[in-house]
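SUBJECT: A protein chain and its fold
Encoding: whole-number codes for local backbone shapes
RECORD BEGINS BELOW THIS LINE
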Amino acid sequence: QVHLVESGGGLVQPGGSLRLSCTASRSAFSIDTMGWYRQPPGKQRELVAVATGSGTTNYADFVRGRFTISRDIAQNTVSLQMNNLKPEDTAVYYCHAHQEGWKYGVGNFQNDSWGQGTQVTVSS
């Protein structure tokens, strides 16, 4: 498991911007993919954006063109720049890390880690 800590959430007016940051603790295994998910009130958690170790990025349709994900592999951090925020963007945003590899006594493995979440509220 990787310990993930998010920061940067808060209250912003519609059309405003916020930048979320996530820092991963040191791990014996490298992190293959980092990304952001969100959970609006009363809804299921949904994908926002992901960034692979090779530099590939993917975005959910509802944030494409407004949000930008940036990853610093050396620093084990990932950020989400959110512009032109809308009330429907209100949610708890979670940092996510995915690991794959092999280790003695286990063999191939996959691991998914989640941060505790940071609240983003878009309201007038």
